[in-house]
Specification:
CATH topology of the largest domain: FAD/NAD(P)-binding domain
Structural class: alpha+beta
Strand content: 15-25%
Radius of gyration: 22 Å
Number of strands: 20
Distance between the termini: 11 Å
CATH architecture of the largest domain: 3-Layer(bba) Sandwich
Shape: globular
Number of helices: 15
CATH superfamily of the largest domain: FAD/NAD(P)-binding domain
Bound molecules: flavin-adenine dinucleotide
């Protein structure tokens, strides 16, 4: 059979995989169940406002994702993402900024000059961070709480545990120490710019999935929107996909659905049954984003602030990043036990250091299964499966990062590469 590839799922992993296959000159069809590309990082239209399903932030270390965005927006990258040297301001008690020194000196200097810590705490933080960056033990069965046990309570509360919740979307009591160490090393153990924060300046679908799909079509590929794949039938010489409007046979496929949707497609395929069982055992963590419109004249003193003592960990000023004057996004990660009035509480967190006035419009988006719980010892599958014609892409496949845009795009490139090698 002439090579013909189907990619199931138009999230960041699927769009990356499909584009990589198409750029190698192979025919590819991308199937997406919903009417919008981007999956868990997509644009959402709410009452005339262009929003995202959740406020996202990227790290300078996300090299695969950043290269791809740059390639897809050659003339406009500066406007697609806003690069900020790492600063964590949590008024009124704490702030931390990395000065322009080579890594990891910038982290150590940042900790030694942090505001809100005494000298004992600063030294304890710098020594511990230095040891973590050089730690070679496997840490496989430790949680982040166990890893940070020797650190003063204040450092855990202000720094290490919020960092864990934001990066792994998993509470420190159950989060993997190994993955936490890997994220800290990726951000602080390489080049200085790896710890930069990058804020999207446009909606998430427009940042990567939509231009990737447009390029795919230019290359002769096909994108089938609102087209859910309902069944796979795997034979030795090809894979048949079934959708609401019939079936089609492909030489190879990439399954790029979220892990919670994998079992339904994989379980009936004999070669994928143990994979379906393994991924079917994952647990998930929610992320809540609350959008609040204040007077358009209101702006925060910086594009984002960390928040203490409440359900939200961050507040972002979409006026500064997206030109949506007066619109703030409050983010609560690992948000399993949110109360019904969590957004009221998040607004009170903000009012400790800003006076935005009364809210004019508010909406909450809660992604219940935002990411898998990144727990110690979690088995993450490789992109190659036990079936030689079926490949995986997605933020849950094996890799150094937790569930992030970078793990999604890295897996997309790897999956396409492994598939192309088989042709
Ligand atoms: C609220 C929120 C905030 C986040 N914040 C950050 C952040 O700040 N930084 C960061 O790096 N990451 C963040 N993440 C994580 C990041 O969004 C995900 O890791 C990434 O988007 C996963 O991409 P994916 O392509 O692997 O999976 P998905 O995005 O889940 O894509 C899977 C796609 O498959 C489609 N699909 C499913 N079943 C079928 C089927 N049968 N047929 C056809 N299509 C199907 C789905 O509709 C979906 O489009 C956040 C996630 C959420 C939800």
């Amino acid at each position: 059979m002439k090579p013909a590839v189907a990619v199931i799922g138009g999230g960041w992993a699927g769009c990356t995989a499909a584009l990589t296959v198409a750029e190698a000159g192979v025919a590819v069809t991308l199937y997406e169940a919903s009417r919008t590309l981007g999956g868990r990082a997509r644009s959402v239209e709410l009452e005339g406002r262009s929003l995202d399903n959740g406020q996202h932030i990227l790290l300078g270390a996300y090299e695969q994702t950043l290269q791809l965005i740059e390639r897809l927006h050659p003339a406009t990258t500066q406007h697609g993402l806003w690069r900020l040297p790492l600063t964590l301001k949590q008024p009124p008690d704490f702030s931390f900024a990395c000065p322009p020194l080579p890594a990891p000196l910038h982290l150590l200097a940042g900790l030694l000059t942090a505001r809100g810590l005494n000298w004992g705490e600063k030294l304890a933080a710098a020594r511990w961070a230095h040891a973590l960056l050089n730690k070679t033990d496997s840490l496989d069965h430790l949680s982040v709480s166990q890893l940070t046990r020797s650190q003063p309570e204040k450092l855990c509360r202000l720094l290490w545990h919020p960092l864990c919740v934001s990066a792994l979307n998993t509470p420190p009591q159950t989060a993997s120490a190994r993955v936490f160490r890997d994220v800290v090393c990726a951000a602080f153990g390489g080049r200085r710019h790896h710890s930069d924060l990058l804020l999207p300046r446009r909606d998430l679908t427009a940042l990567l999935p939509a231009p990737a799909a447009a390029r795919l079509v230019e290359l002769g590929g096909e994108v089938r929107m609102a087209c859910r794949v309902t069944a796979l039938d795997a034979a030795a010489d090809g894979i048949t996909l079934t959708t609401h409007d019939g079936s089609a046979v492909y030489s190879h496929i990439v399954v790029a659905v979220a892990p919670q949707h994998l079992a339904a497609l994989a379980a009936p395929v004999a070669a994928l049954q143990s994979l379906a069982g393994e991924v079917g055992a994952y647990r998930y963590q929610p992320i809540a984003t609350g959008y609040v419109q204040y007077d358009p004249a209101f702006r925060l003193a910086a594009p984002l602030f960390a928040l203490a003592g409440g359900p939200a960990q961050f507040v972002f000023d979409r006026g500064q990043s997206h030109g949506q004057a007066g619109l703030l996004a409050f983010v609560a990660s690992a948000a399993a036990n949110l109360s019904a009035d969590w957004l009221d509480e998040a607004e009170i967190q903000l009012q400790r250091f800003a006076e935005p006035g009364p809210a004019r419009w508010r909406r909450r988006i809660i992604e219940k299964n935002a990411t898998y719980a990144c727990v110690p010892g979690l088995a993450r599958p490789a992109v190659c499966t036990a079936h030689p014609r079926i490949f995986l892409a997605g933020d849950y496949t094996a890799g150094p990062y937790p569930a992030t845009l970078e793990s999604a795009t890295q897996s997309g490139v790897q999956s396409a590469g492994a598939l192309l090698e088989k042709l």
